[in-house]
Amino acid sequence: MAQGTAEPAIELAGVQHSYGTAPVLRGLDLSVQRGEIYALLGGNGAGKSTTLSALLGFIAPSSGSVRVCGIDPVSDPRGARAQMAYVPENVSLYDHLTARENIAYFLALAGHDTGASVIEPALGAVGLDSQAWDRRMSGFSKGMRQKVAIALALARDVPVLLLDEPTSGLDPRAVLEFNGLLDTARERQVAVLMVTHDLVSAVDIADRIGFLTAGRIEEEQQAGEGARFDLNALHDRYAGTGQAI
Ligand SMILES: Nc1ncnc2c1ncn2[C@@H]1O[C@H](COP(=O)(O)OP(=O)(O)OP(=O)(O)O)[C@@H](O)[C@H]1O
Ligand SMILES: [Mg+2]
């Protein structure tokens, strides 16, 4: 892992991508350091999920460079994915397996240790009630599923975490718990890229907020020393683009 180096864990530079003839990313520059939480905002269809797809190596940009801990996800997708955990909006884990079995299964696939000493601290860290650890996931709520997905990410101990609309559909208490989880990830020096429409969560937890408009980061704001973002100003700024929140 690249801990201690100045190189950003996530780096997109001049990235262009079109689906067919429709350009989506038009020279996107974005970087996230380890121990930093970056909230990527933008209207529906702005290209936020496409940005994550580029990092995951699901798409190959027509130009520009994409690096995850220095690895190009197009030329070395396995190497890049070994550095990343990705939590999509709708977490897809196996319903017929328990939370513990799901984590063990995906850890085994990644060639990791699957012992209780790895799995239990991760399930504990995400605050999933220990009574649920050995229950099948078919009865889990959205918030519980997300906790298991993040527990898997923590157990894998990867330096990069990608989250697509992680708080959509979570109740306010679950959002607070989720923000606490990101604090844990930050303490562990994880680089977090969070795509979101949830300004409240972004204001509470992000170190940096970027607006994706017309295929590039149109504006970036950094949380200052002791000073958080101005929610009302952000809301006006966001709604003022004419795109849906
Ligand atoms: N596989 C695909 N094939 C063709 N067009 C696509 C594909 N995926 C996304 N698009 C188009 O690319 C644009 C950006 O999509 P993307 O999913 O990245 O947006 P987004 O910012 O994540 O939006 P949302 O907030 O609605 O999730 C949209 O116009 C979308 O229709
Ligand atoms: Mg999306």
Summarize the structure in words:
- By secondary structure, this protein is α/β, with parallel strands linked by helices.
- The chain has a domain at 91-157.
- It contains eight helices and nine strands.
- The protein has helices at residues 48-56, 77-81, 99-109, 116-125, 142-156, 172-187, 199-205, 231-239, and strands at 10-19, 22-32, 37-41, 63-68, 84-87, 160-164, 191-195, 208-213, 216-222.
- The strands form two sheets. The protein has a six-stranded mixed beta sheet with strand order 5-6-7-3-8-9, with helices on both faces. It has a three-stranded antiparallel beta sheet with strand order 2-1-4.
- β1 and β2 (22-32) form a beta hairpin.
- α3 packs parallel to α5 and α5 (142-156) packs parallel to α6 (172-187).
- The longest helix is centred in the C-terminal third of the chain and has 16 residues, at 172-187.
- The radius of gyration is 18 Å and the shape is globular.
- It starts with 9 loop residues before the first strand and ends in a 6-residue tail after the last helix.
- The model has no long low-confidence stretch (mean pLDDT 90).
- Bound molecules: adenosine-5'-triphosphate (ATP) and magnesium ion (MG).
- Residues 19, 24, 42, 44-50 line the site of adenosine-5'-triphosphate.
- Keywords: ATP-binding, Nucleotide-binding, Transport.
- One of its GO terms (molecular function) is ATP binding.
- This is ATP-binding cassette domain-containing protein.
- It comes from Altericroceibacterium endophyticum.
- Residues 10-239 form the ABC transporter domain.
